[in-house]
Amino acid sequence: MLALHHAVMKHASEEVVQMLLDAYADGCKVADNDGNLPLHVAIEYEASDAVIALLIAKHSGACRELNHIKKLPMDLALEHGASEAVVSEIAAGEKVARDAEVGILAWLWG
C-alpha cells in the first residue's frame, strides 16, 4: 500500500493528496495488495469529492478498472451512496478513458 492509499483512506485533504501525487505521479495507477487503486480506496472510504475528482483528473483510466472483487469505481460509488458530483465525475472519467482506448485502437488499426 502506498502513502497515497493510506492518505485517501484517512480522509487527507486535497492539498496532501496533491503533494503525494506531485512526489509520485504514477501512484494513482498502483494497486494495493487487494487490487484497489487509490480511486477505489477513496470511494470506499468516502474521501471528499475534491480528492476523488483529483484522482480521476490524474488517471481517468482508473474509472474503468476493476478491483480484486471485480468492482468498478462506479459500482463502489453507488454502493456507498456517493454524491451526485462523484457519480458525475466517475461517468466523465469513464468517457475520457473509453475515448482514449478507442483512439489508440483506431491508431493501431489505422
What does this protein look like?
By secondary structure, the chain is mainly alpha-helical. Helix 1 packs parallel to helix 3 (38-44) and helix 2 (14-23) runs parallel beside helix 4. The protein contains 6 helices and no strands. The chain is globular, with a radius of gyration of 14 Å. It has helices at residues 3-9, 14-23, 38-44, 49-58, 73-79, 84-109. The model has no long low-confidence stretch (mean pLDDT 92). Helices cover 61% and strands 0% of the residues. It has a single domain (3-109), classed as Ankyrin repeat-containing domain (Serine Threonine Protein Phosphatase 5, Tetratricopeptide repeat, Alpha Horseshoe), CATH 1.25.40.
Feature tags:
Serine Threonine Protein Phosphatase 5, Tetratricopeptide repeat; single chain; mainly alpha; 110 residues
Short description:
With 110 residues, the chain is mainly α. It has a single domain, classed as Serine Threonine Protein Phosphatase 5, Tetratricopeptide repeat (Alpha Horseshoe), CATH 1.25.40.
